[in-house]
Amino acid sequence: MRDEIKSSTRGNIVQEKKYSDRLLEALRKYHNRAIETKAVIEELIAMAKDFKAAVLKNESMGLSGDEIAFYDALAERPQVLEEMTDKTLKDLAIELTAKLRQSTSVDWQVRKSVRAQMRLLIRRLLRKYKYPPEGQESAVDTVIKQAERLSEQWSENRV
């Protein structure tokens, strides 16, 4: 199950963390004898159904895999979905993906000046789309982590 999660959420750190944490929690309860084998199996089945539903939802959104990864990074906090429309969040994810893809260079992760420019670019886009201010710092951090994960694929595709 862990391998399935990793392979299916390869570029999406938010989804990978969500399902990995859920799996580890179920296994932790089982190892601590807090739940029985039957309960673990039921949890794994429920998790697989939720995972499949999330995949179908992502496919129906009309976004690329990279855009979905940034959408999830931006929508990680439930309050964001309450304050922003789904369309606005999609538009933000699309523009953010395009701008970050253009801005990444091979060494952007180690050069502080380039990294600072990326953070500034993200902040500007969040303000442009009226992203809730109380969650902006954590959103910027999550988006940077997501960009780090995807930038390896982006640089491979350029070559």
- What's the average pLDDT? 83
- The DSSP helix count reads 8
Rg on CA atoms, Å:
17 Å
The general outline is globular
Q: Helix fraction? A: over 70%
Beta content comes to under 5%
How many runs of DSSP E, i.e. beta strands?
0
User: Number of domains in the coordinates?
Assistant: 2
Oligomer: single chain
Return residue spans where pLDDT drops below 50 for at least 5 consecutive residues: none
Order of helices and strands: HHHHHHHH
Structural class by sheet pairing and helices = mainly alpha
Q: How many strands, which pairing sense, and closed or not: the largest β-sheet?
A: none
Q: How widely separated are the two ends?
A: 33 Å
What does this structure look like?
There is one protein chain. The protein is mainly alpha-helical and 159 residues long. It folds into 2 domains: 2-60; 65-158. The chain contains 8 helices and no strands. The chain is globular, with a radius of gyration of 17 Å. The two termini are 33 Å apart.
SSE layout and pairing:
Layout: H1 2-8, H2 13-31, H3 37-60, H4 65-74, H5 78-83, H6 86-103, H7 112-128, H8 136-158
Helix pairs in contact: 1-2, 2-3, 4-6, 4-8, 6-7, 7-8
List keywords for this structure.
single chain, 159 residues, mainly alpha, 2 domains, 78% helix, 0% strand, globular
Short description:
The chain is 78% helix and 0% strand. By secondary structure, the chain is mostly helical.
